[in-house]
Amino acid sequence: MWVIQAVNYLDFITEDGHGFFVYFSYTLFNFPKIIHRILPFIFFVSLFYQINRYELKNELIVYWTAGVSKLQFIKVILSFSLFFMIFQIIMGSYISPKGQDKARNFIRNSNIDFFPSLFQEGKFIDVVKNLTIFIESEKPSGTYNNIYLKEMNKGLDNSSRVIYAKKGYLNNSNEKKYLELFKGDIVNINGSKTNNFSFDKINFDLSEYTSKSTTFPKIQESSSKLLIKCLAYDAKGKAKDLKSEIFICSKSIIKNVKEEVFKRFYKPVYLLLLSMIACLLFFISKENKRFTLYKYIIFFIGITAIILSELSLRYASNNIIGFYFFITFPLFSILSLYIFSFIKSKINF
Asked: Would 19 be classed as within a structural domain?
C-alpha cells in the first residue's frame, strides 16, 4: 500500500514541479497514516492465522491439558488487544496527523525546483499559479526556441502579460531560478487596452511562483487538540470565533471534524471486537467435519466487522441513529462474545 501511494505521489514531480527530496520526504511522513489505516485488518488476519495454525498443529492442546482454560487464554489476547488499541489511538490522534502535517509542510515550503522536467516541446505547461508556459522546441544544449509566457496579474484588475522570445534558457543564480530570454516582445493586457514593447534580453524570475499543489492542511492533517476545540466552539454556537492560521472552523466542516475525531479516539475499540471474533476459533476443533466451513464463517464475520466499522463511522456524524450504532455496536458485540466464551468455557471444562 505504501508503494502504491508512493507511485500516486509521483505527480508532485511529473506534474507539480517539486524535487525528489520533497517527494521522498512527503512519502516517508505519510507512512504512519497507512499503518493507522490498515492496522485493524493486519491485526485480525494475523491473530486469526496464528490461532488457526496452533489448532492445526495441536499446539493449543498443550494449554488445555496443562489446566489453562480457554477463557484465560482469551483474557491474555484481550490484554494484548488493549495494548494495540492504545497504540492505534496514539497513532491516529498524534503521530499520523503530525506526520501528514510535516509532509504537507514540505510541499508548503517547496519552490518549483524541477522546472526542466516540466518544459516539454509543443505543450502548454500550467502547473504553477498565474503562469502558462509554451515552448516550441528544445536543443540538446538546453536552449529553448520560440517561448511563449502568459502571466496573470495577482491583483483584482484581471490584467495579464504575454511574453514572446525567440530563444532562452533556464538559469540558476543565488538560489533563484529565472528564464533568460532573448529577442522578443512583451504585450500588457488590461481589459480592452493593450501596449507592447520589444526587448533584446530580459530575465524572467520564476522563484516567486508556487505550485498548484494543495498547501493548506486538510482535516486529517490537523491536530486533535484543534479539532476538539472546533467541536467545543461549535457546541456553543461560536464556531467562527475559533482563530487559527492553519484551520478554519465552520458549520460546513463540523460533520467531517466529528468523523475524524471518532476515527481517532473511538474506532480503535473495534480491535477488541476483532480479537473476540478471532477467539471463536478456540471453540471449534479441527476434528469437526465442518471445521473449514466454520473457520471461513468466522473470518467472514471479522471482515464484515471491519467493513461495518468504516461504514458506521461515516454515518456516526450524520444522525443520532448512526452515532448510537457506532458507539454501542462494538461494546454490545464484545460483551455478547465474552459471555458466549464464558459459557462455552464452563461447559467444555
From this structure: no
Same domain (yes/no): 144, 84: no
CA dist 30 and 4 (Å) reads 12
> Across the chain, where does the E strand assignment appear?
124-125, 131-138, 144-152, 160-173, 176-190, 193-205
DSSP at 240: G
Q: What share of the chain is helix, strand, coil (3-state, %, to 5)?
A: 60, 20, 25
Is residue 119 located within the same domain as residue 237?
A: no
Cell of 66: 496443562
Range of the domain at 255: 36-90+217-348
Last residue of a domain, one of 147, 171, 205: 205
162 within 8 A of 150, measured Cβ to Cβ: yes
Is residue 17 one of the residues assigned to a domain? no
Residues 226 and 317 in one domain: yes
Residue 146 one-letter amino acid:
N
> DSSP label at 200?
E
Tell how far CA 1 is from the center of its chain: 12
pLDDT of residue 73: 93
Kindly report, residue by residue over 257-274, the tens digit of the pLDDT: 999 999 999 999 999 999
Listed residues 157, 177, 205: the one ending a domain: 205
Domain count, the chain: 2
Do 250 and 343 fall into the same domain? yes
Taking the C-alpha atoms of residue 278 and residue 49, their distance in angstroms, rounded to an integer, is: 9
Q: Please tell me whether residue 75 adopts helix, strand or coil conformation.
A: helix
C-alpha to C-alpha distance for 341 and 279, rounded to whole angstroms? 9
User: Does position 14 have pLDDT exceeding 90, yes or no?
Assistant: no
Alpha carbons 144 and 215: distance in angstroms, whole number: 31
Q: Are residues 73 and 185 in the same domain?
A: no
- Grid coordinates representing 154? 495577482
Indicate the Cα dihedral angle 329, 335, 338, 340, nearest 10°. -80
Place of cell 471461513: 296
- Domain shared by 189 and 235, yes or no: no
Cα 90 to Cα 116, 153, 259, 329: the distances in Å are: 42, 46, 17, 23
Q: In degrees, to the nearest 5, what angle opens at C-alpha 77 toward C-alphas 334 and 282?
A: 80
This prediction's pTM: 0.72
Q: Is 177 within 8 Å of 116 (Cβ atoms)?
A: no
